[in-house]
Amino acid sequence: MNKKQVGAWALFDLANSVYPAVIVSVVFQVYYIDTIVGNQDSIGDWWWGRAVALSALVVAVSSPLLGAIADRAGMRKRFMGFFVAMCVTGVALFTTLGPGAVFWGAAIFVFANVGYEACLVFYNAYLPDIAPSDKQGWVSGLGFGVGYVGSALGLLLAIPLIETNIDLVWVMVAVFFILFSIPSFLFLPQDQASDVSVGRAAWWGVTNLLKILGEVLQEKDLRRFLLAFFFYIDGVLTAIYMSSTVATTTFGYTQAELVYLFIALQIAALCGAFALAKPTDFLGPKKILSGVLVMWTLVAVSMGFIPTSKLWFGALAMVAGFGLGSVQAASRAFMATLIPKGKEAEMFGFYALCGKSSSVVGPLVFGYIAMASGGNQRLAVMAISVLFVVGLGLLRRVNDPRSAA
């Protein structure tokens, strides 16, 4: 492995991780729900769930096509740069928001979130290029581990800004993302020259969508894994997207306490990513994923029975956090082992398709159950456990190349 490329790749995980931690999970989520919309009768949860679902739908529909275009035109890094710029621009525009800007806030968030999620398609596609198959679990875990350092650092930087001028939080996130992503654009493998222009590649992609889909369906274990991933990652992403509102609404966390909780959560996720990185290569990602999904199922069910206590919720969150790092790292490594050479961005586009199309369903179900049950968020969290169980059952049908080896 080229250590400089691996280091630059991991630093991009550090760069982009400030966005989901500060924007999606903690500060902006609560700011949008409670300040911009107001959360009487869970109406803020309703708006937030639909904004998350819409952005996920856009990414789900476009990612396979964008990945195929990037592979064919040899423009993976340029596509990644474009969507980073899109995300950063959207975050900068958060400074124009205030109470009552419900539609504008949702629109800007969707714009920024699409940029963030789309850039990860091309970033993930570098994993098979920079690491051999027997090291991909370790490298993937390294990326997520470093990423959780970035999440914790971003939250620490946000703490003093929340109390003084919240607009400075959005500026900090944009600058942080740009600064730490620079090494990846300098040192990751350059785009390969191609005689196919982006226009021709786009036309080919649009007119050959069924062929592109057929390439995935021909790979038996790949399609089986993506189906399993569709279900269990829906539960994971729904938990991430809705965790702040559960902590504040049901368990009474203040904004400051929520930030400290999520800093601790990033540390737990970092420990999980690093602790299970080498076992992912040694035992195979399938075994690691299966164990973690059992743990997440127990966490989701337990949410309905723990006392209404910040301490109990925090302890359960730490257990989930330990599994968060490993489930994401092992999933990425598993996917990388199943991809045919030369189709990395295209196939990781389908990886995003399954992940984001599934996360259209989860937040909507969460919001519906919470509203229909009179604001009972515990019941909504417990419902998520079904997604982990279904995903685990489908995962058992996938052959793990690492285990076979």
What do you see in this structure?
- By secondary structure, the protein is mainly α.
- It has a single domain (3-404), classed as MFS general substrate transporter like domains (Growth Hormone, Chain: A, Up-down Bundle).
- Helices cover 83% and strands 0% of the residues.
- The protein contains 17 helices and no strands.
- It has helices spanning 3-37, 43-73, 76-92, 102-124, 127-130, 136-164, 167-187, 198-207, 209-218, 220-249, 255-275, 277-283, 285-302, 310-337, 344-372, 377-395, 401-404.
- The longest helix is centred in the N-terminal third of the chain and has 35 residues, at 3-37.
- It is globular and about 55 Å long.
- 57% of the residues are buried.
- The model has no long low-confidence stretch (mean pLDDT 84).
